[in-house]
From TrEMBL:
SUPFAM superfamilies: HAD-like, Hypothetical protein PH1602, Release factor, RmlC-like cupins. It comes from Effrenium voratum. One of its GO terms (biological process) is RNA processing. This is 3'-phosphate/5'-hydroxy nucleic acid ligase. The lineage of its organism: Eukaryota, Sar, Alveolata, Dinophyceae, Suessiales. PANTHER family: RNA-SPLICING LIGASE RTCB HOMOLOG. It catalyses: a 3'-end 3'-phospho-ribonucleotide-RNA + a 5'-end dephospho-ribonucleoside-RNA + GTP = a ribonucleotidyl-ribonucleotide-RNA + GMP + diphosphate. Belongs to the prokaryotic/mitochondrial release factor family. NCBIfam families: HAD-SF-IA-v1, release_rtcB. Pfam families: DMSP_lyase, HAD_2, RF-1, RtcB. Mn(2+) 2 binds at H151, H220. The keyword GTP-binding applies. Mn(2+) 1 binds at H120. It comes from the Eukaryota. The active site is at H272 (gmp-histidine intermediate).
Amino acid sequence: MLTTWIEGAAEEQLDLVSRLAGVSHVAAFPDLHPGKYGPVGSAILADRIYPQLIGNDIGCGMSLFALDLPARKLRLDKAAQKIRVLEEPWHGDPGACLAADGLPTDLHPVALGTIGGGNHFCELQELDSLSDDCLLAGTDIRKGDLMLLVHSGSRSLGMAVFGTVLESFSGLDLDSTVGRTYLAAHNDAVRWASLNRRLIAERAARALRSDLRLVADAPHNLIEEHDDGLLHRKGAAKADMPLVPLAGSRDALSYLLVPKANRPEALASLAHGSGRKYDRRSMAGRAGTTRSDRDGLIRTSFGGHVICEDRQLLIEEAPNAYKDPNQVLDDLRTSDLAQSVATLKPLLTFKKAVNRELAAARRDKHGGCDGADPSSALVTLSGNQIPEFTNTWIGTVQWICKSPFRAHHRRQNWYVGVFSIDNSDLPEIDLETSALRIETFRSGGPGGQHQNTTDSGVRVTHLPTGLVAVSTDERSQHRNRRVALDRLVARFILKREESLARDRSAQNQLHRRPQMRLAAKERLAYDALLLAIASAFSAEGLHETTPVHCFGSLDWEHWQGTGLADDVSNSLYTTELLGPDGHVRDNEVRVGLLVSEAGTDYPPSSHAAEETYFVIAGKAEWVLEGAPYGQDGTLLDFDATWTPAYEEAARSEAGSLLAAGNSEEIAEAWIAGGADFGLADLTTELDRIFVSKMHDAAPLPGIREAVDALLARGFRLGVASSDSEAAIRAFLEGTNLAPKFDFVTGYDTGHGPKPEPGMVHGFADAIGVPTSGIAVIGDNTHDIEMAHAAGAGLTIGVLTGTSARQELSPHADVVLESAADLIGFFP
Ligand SMILES: Nc1nc2c(ncn2[C@@H]2O[C@H](COP(=O)(O)O)[C@@H](O)[C@H]2O)c(=O)[nH]1
Ligand SMILES: [Mn+2]
């Protein structure tokens, strides 16, 4: 007996379908709901083809992939930006992908790799629980793994195929030309849709810098030829496979099911989702009716994010449009159709591509790229003097250029990590064993005369890891096999080296080409000076200026195009602070910084004083009317000028890294900005400085009283901070507050960084309460996001840090002036 509510109109549709000519059997699942031509959530066996029962989204399905990135390492806010790569068209090689999947190389390449609209989505999920490890043996998935669930179909290809048989309401004979033609095109669309889901997942995984493995691929809109007839599945998952995903909604758990094969009347099918409770049109008054409700459409109760610029779609696809997936699952279980082996928690749901220009503008703003640029490349060198050559490149190379991938980006400095791999140190891969699946497919070699005439393309899959390499470069299958195997080895090496490189980054030396030998302190000083100049010009009203905070991101470039010899221009670095091309816009003057390497000789030149130079750091020799004289950097008193400028910069939006970042993140940013340190050294040094300052730090007024009052009311207290644990303890001990706190966690304690939920979970575990019993008090959105991600019961923003009320109030339940006001808040 089903407990899930089924709409009467769906039952009527089911009844009508069961009475169609040639229909011998129908099965319906608890996600059943009315569709355009027939009920969604049903499987129908007939002796002829009914294209309407499938509709235009032929091959739509759910594919689940495991990422090799644990959830605890995920920065949700960063991932949310990265996954927006799916807003863009895919720039891969459709011909090679289609050919590798045995499809014609020109089969609808245009929409490949994209999700489409409706309720199609790509969702980043966390494997929340696993109920039966034995049933998952071989999948190598574990609790805490990140997964991608992709729901998409054959896009406009399916529409075109359906368009050819739109009027065939009485069914098509399988032996007729039109029937055979439709079924062949339909089968291609089903394979195309499955490939498309894989490409979408690969794009998302690549943006997140992870590899991925397919766990389950279950189409739910398709026709299959079976011995006893043509099996039509409409919104019913193909279940004659080991694992089938059951989608919930963006604000509910999804499940991974193991189908049971003992109910033949289920027609080897299963529910594929929770099914609609309300149709799209009737959602208008049911979601997004108030402002806070609308804001809530892009957040989930799991602390997840929804990325979808289409407000209408957000409402039509609101979680309350769907039935309760848990109830659907219960019905499947009690009907002995399937068993759930894993629950999947939604973290990030990406829906529907948006306006391309908007997407491009946002991508440039966030410095993102479209995913088409290679993240790594393996170059094989042969010949003499290889060590001499490689030694000049190994390290971090600064590349000064306009990026071809970020056409609108002002930045001219890009960094590439270069390391060498010794050929004699290849990973152990046994290329001769059954660990490899080698498939051939039709493909022409270069030149194209032999296009599609021989099975010359080769696809090699390394079964234990799922790594794949393809070659269609050569005309001969034999040579393509060699190339594909070489590429497979290269993929192994890259995978291994990428993870080694992460470990190595601690010791990484920074080489740059050309080298910019500015100490970190000076570089920061220049950036702070920019802010000072910007505010001075604005305050004086000298010019119409538009200050832009750009802490740590000045674009330094060589002074080129001025007729200077290369060696001179290569030892000069300039950045325009104020001017037509500056960070602060002004059309009348240019103010910039010029740094010259020690010993640079600038050729004699003279002109009227439309340019004036002041030496602000270091020492310069000038020639005035033939007589040399020295000038020190005495124009500005370094400490008096820059220390207040640093302070102001640190308090401004530009200083949010200092306020919310941990020592490692600050060190990373400074190294990227030119600090000549190893990551580990700079992090240790910053920790040392911060701890030393903490001994003398004083609590805010009223904090001691608030702490005592909260303790008296039975609260237990903890500190979760992006400082190091040692710095927090130094502060608590220095202020005699230490005995009052049951728990202390810093960025280095092992609970992960903010806004990940680990710190709140750690506190909840330490004091033995659920996270819903925890109130998080924080001074920036990272704190509040962490609280949401952990499912904390209450979030309280305070204004004593770097964030203003308008930044905190959209996220926090309450905003107080200071934590001292907690006394009044918890009377
Ligand atoms: N995990 C998510 N599941 C979702 C989301 N939106 C819808 N759904 C589920 O997917 C199926 C798809 O149904 P179909 O008939 O269009 O194939 C639906 O029944 C819902 O249960 C989401 O954002 N995340
Ligand atoms: Mn679907």
